[in-house]
Amino acid sequence: MKTLSGQAQQLLETWKIKQLNLEDALQSLQNEALQEEDKAFLIESWKKYLSQQRQRPGFLYMGLGSLLGFLACVFTMMDVAPSLNSFFLYGLTSFAILVVLYGCYLVFE
Asked: Domain segments of the chain: what residues?
């Protein structure tokens, strides 16, 4: 596995602080005096970092949606409040599915 030089590592940390997108990172990289292979590795590292920033909330949303779906199932089967049975069965389950799908969107995009 290749490691970054000190200048490249500093550049990556600066991008994290500024929260640059990929296009802005490419623009700032053109002004730097680095070897081409270092630039390519730096861009790949930045893409992985951006991907991880989207995946973490995605997994949290999927977990939250799964928990809500499970609770909706349990509350429906226990018949805790008969007047709220339709809310648990249709409302909470539908909301849980939407939350899980949004989490999947963030993870797999």
From this structure: 6-108
